[in-house]
Amino acid sequence: MINKSRRQFIARTTSVALAAAAYRQSNAQVAALPEVATNLVVELPRCRVPLSFIIDDSTCLVNMGKFCMPQFSATYPEREDYRKPWQDWPDEIPDAFVREFGSWCAEHGVKGKYSIVPYPACVGWLDRTLPGWSQKQLTDSLTLVRELMLPNWDIHPEMITHTRAIDLKTGRPFADYSPAHMENSYPQEDVSVDYLASYLAYALRILKNCDLPCEGITTPGGFGNRVKSKLPHAVFEAVRDVYNVEVPHYFKYVSSDDESTDPVMEPMPDHARSVPRATMNVPAGTGDWFGGWEGATPSQGEKYSNTDATSGRMVDLIEQRRPAIMLCHWPGMYCNGEKEGFHDFQRVVMALNKRFAEQTVWMKVSEIGNYWAAKGLTQMKASETSVEFDAPIPCQDFTVTIPANPVSNLVLTSDDAVKKLYSVSSRASLNKHTYFNDSGMTTVCLDLPRGKSVLQL
Ligand SMILES: [Zn+2]
Fold first, then answer.
1. For residue 406, how far is its CA from the centre of ligand 1 (angstroms)?
2. pTM higher than 0.85, yes or no?
3. Distance 107 CA to ligand 1 centre (A)
4. What's the CATH fold of domain 378-456?
5. How many angstroms is it from 174 CA to the middle of ligand 1?
6. Which CATH superfamily is domain 16-35+49-368 in?
């Protein structure tokens, strides 16, 4: 959930280029920078602006807006905004609503990130029992997330409880509920990468017990603000340890109006290009303007996009051709049963899809992070007759523009396969293994295999 100190604005100078510069500094002895021939341009995937929807504070069944409110109020008794009438709100955001939301999103192509808080507001453990609900209800709810949400959404733990911090030695919440021991502001002292990674891994393991795969994490509130430089390393260690993910990612930051929304590659100290050891930091590009973290805030969907997609932050980002990742909180979709936020969201998606269908592509947060990782890590060399790729990680829909006279019969050759590419008649038609000739330039879209491959022109 967001409060004023919640998501700190990301520095203006965030870009893959800057990450590469940082990488050069920290890895001068380790590896050379990726070679990118200056006459090649890595485009957006399929030359389309990536869209995504980040949902925070979701979990199974428990209405986090209701259960967080009194715990936040105890920690911050002076805060007016934590005194909303939580007693009147439903305990549950029902699976019927998850089904309605997830089915609608699948029909309209929406993808993104959906948090599953593993011990939501200390109500119960999703891999054990959820007091207030039957074991069958819990099992059914997890099954619904696996079957309906997983195909189009990354699942992230939003730490362990999103309220009280857990003492890893005992598995119980710390007795102290001052800001020092609330996850939204935890930890308040410098801690080691190992400790931080242990805390993240504790959350990840609960979701692993629930058979939910994760490639990244979301920080609740200001979690990790005091140890920002250690967080990427801790994410890397924890997500690799529990899930063996090659390039983990995390969501913590929101980019403001004039800042880049590009994912940032954060290399580990021992990063080497041939064996990537880096975490992707994927920022959102909007605030939460639907129903708020507690589901009781009037929705202002027009701030994302108006009904004909001619104004709004998402429209601006699409027109500027920058990744357009929108943000909300799950209780703000349900709005305690009124669903005002969900209906406003549907209007926004339909407006964007109607005006920008051919210029945008919905992607999971992990897919966006992976694309920028591949963009930062792949070496490319072009000659008059070929382009050579050396890719430490594979990448779907990798799209590059090459100066070339109209070409035909393009073939991508790697150790395992030979792929023929097909010509398309417009940029908007670019899809995997196609190319588009356009006045002295050729744009190619391909599934880049790991390792070396050659595109014969
Ligand atoms: Zn949250």
1. 50
2. yes
3. 26
4. Immunoglobulin-like (2.60.40)
5. 20
6. Glycoside hydrolase/deacetylase (3.20.20.370)
